[in-house]
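[Q] Does anyone have a clean structure-token version of this?
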Amino acid sequence: MESFGIRITKDDLAFSAAHFITLDARQCERLHGHGYRVAVELRGPLGDNQYVVDFITLHRLMRRLVEPLDHRVLLPTEHPTIQIFESDTEVEVTWTQRRWVFPRADCVLLPLANVTAELLARWLGRQLIDALGETMDCVPQAVRIELQEMDGHWAFFDWRPD
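[A] Here you go.
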């Protein structure tokens, strides 16, 4: 049985962002940053033009997803003990006795339970799947998002339709 797929990773499929994660109910990392790098792989049948998805189109979609994350503070809106209060100008974040205040324009609030590389990879993957369906009417047979948090540290998310 034959199968087809494409994979892209380019220098501009990268972003720098600050975050912190809670390690358990009593531990929270310090705010710190990473230079993230994204790789994406799609599997599916060949279309009328004899490719799964056009490389350029996939690259553009991924750029649109990673660009808003670049040079931002990534914050989880679904964390059970992190509280986020936002106004037009600020975002205040609290966890137990700790408190951070950031300019609103510097923050991206993500519907995640924690801003881990694994959950960021899943968020990017689901955003890509939605974008492919909206812009190309394409549902791939499989999607894999790999997210490098630092040299040699990769997390990934695999998806297949039900």
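[Q] Thanks! Anything notable?
[A] Residues 5-71+116-159 form a domain with the Tetrahydropterin Synthase; Chain A fold (CATH 3.30.479.10).
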